[in-house]
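Listing S7. Sequence submitted for prediction.
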Amino acid sequence: MRYVTFGDEPALSPDEFFMNEALKEAKLALAEDEIPIGAVVVCRARSLVKAIT
């Protein structure tokens, strides 16, 4: 399994990386007074779609 690093931050597994992307989307939804659900569709370690409710 490949891990992703960003500078001095700890390495993230692909699962952790994409979960963080979904959490960012959920935070955007919450900021818009929506139900905080974020989703990221991933295929072969590439993000295809990001969406909020």
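Caption to Listing S7: primary sequence and predicted structure tokens for the chain studied. The chain is about 35% helix and 25% strand. The helical segments are 14-31.
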